[in-house]
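Researcher: Let's walk through a ligand-bound prediction step by step. First, I give you the protein sequence. Second, the SMILES string for adenosine-5'-diphosphate. Third, you return the three-dimensional complex as structure tokens. Ready?
Model: Ready.
Researcher: Here are steps one and two:
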Amino acid sequence: MIPTIEIDGLVKHYGERTVLSGVSLDIDGGVFALLGPNGSGKTTLVSILTTLLRPDGGTARVLGHDILAEQREVRRRISATGQYATVDEQLTGRENLVMVARLLGLSPADARTRAAELLGEFELEEAADRRVSGYSGGMRRRIDLAASLVERPAVLFLDEPTTGLDPVSRQSLWAGVAALARAGSCVFLTTQMLDEAEALAERIAILHDGRIVADGTAASLTALVGGETAVLCDANGEEVRALDVDGTAAGLARALAGLGEQERGLRVELRRPTLDDAFAALTRRGTEAVAA
Ligand SMILES: Nc1ncnc2c1ncn2[C@@H]1O[C@H](COP(=O)(O)OP(=O)(O)O)[C@@H](O)[C@H]1O
Ligand SMILES: [Mg+2]
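Model: Step three, the predicted complex:
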């Protein structure tokens, strides 16, 4: 079976600056998260994959179609946020979705059904019959996304979909993305937020310095950082200080032997590294490629 998205050695320069220096990835479906700090090249990569920007080197295929030689085939199969800003502020959320569905050729009954499904998936039922002009920023983001999904795309690109959203809107948007993935779409998502990648994606790749520095599940990325860390906690469970345990049992024994007089009564808690730790460790490692 061909991968949903095949990326092979993509290179992109802006003037003197190399933003992508050979990015390769195969994505099989489900939700994939590309994680990277601001300026790491996430939008550049998404723009290339959605045929909006030409790479300077390398190739990519979406559902087997080459992004350069078969642009139209690629575009027919994908949806990208912001690409179809069709929402009319004077109409209600429901009216907008029904209108888009009718424009796509659905019957009036099917259009209403599809609109209701999307309003449910994006938790917009309560606001459905109010004008979009009165929507909050988070609701507006969700109705825009829902409108671009009336026709279920095989592949959806979401470039930092929750940046700037309040926590409640963020959760609603996550629910919509999860529903879409359950319905069979492949979602390629970019984010700077580790918890978002962890919550949504089966697979996460970290982009740093123009390269993929790590690629795997959230669990495999934390495993890369080493084993458990240990912290000393007081009676309230508050962290007093971290212990240098070297990720090993011997290291832990050494650290415990070296505790000060007042520290003897404190509790030792073992903690698994978080994805934040993984991210910090991996980006410190720079261009050294790591495969999980
Ligand atoms: N059109 C452009 N011309 C010159 N530099 C650009 C252009 N677009 C992006 N860049 C630079 O390329 C780098 C990567 O940008 P971008 O892909 O937008 O990163 P991200 O989406 O991860 O924040 C940044 O340093 C940005 O300033
Ligand atoms: Mg960006």
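Researcher: And what stands out?
Model: The radius of gyration is 23 Å. The chain has a mean pLDDT of 87.
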